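Suppose you are handed a protein chain with no further information: no name, no annotation, nothing but its sequence. What can you learn? This example shows the usual starting point.
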Amino acid sequence: MGQFLFPLIMVAMLGFMIFSQRKQQKNRLEALNQIQKGDEIITIGGLYGVVDEIDQQKVVLDVDGVYLTFERSAIRGRVNQAAVETVAVETAVTEE
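A reasonable first move is to predict its three-dimensional structure. Written in structure tokens, the prediction is:
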């Protein structure tokens, strides 16, 4: 009985590690897909910049007026989301 317990525990630990890694990979891919123009991001090298262009493989960052091109996989995460501009429209009410 004892000889089967150790391999069973090892298989369970391996399965748990694989499951956790896939979940992290899925979350990272989801986060990368949500990045859009205007977002402030940080790269894996610690460089902060604002996304100027992004496609499936590359991202162009604006770093204080200098435009740098990176692979999309070089993005560690988003620091701030792009500010959405809201425009207030005033309507004049005329009394009759």
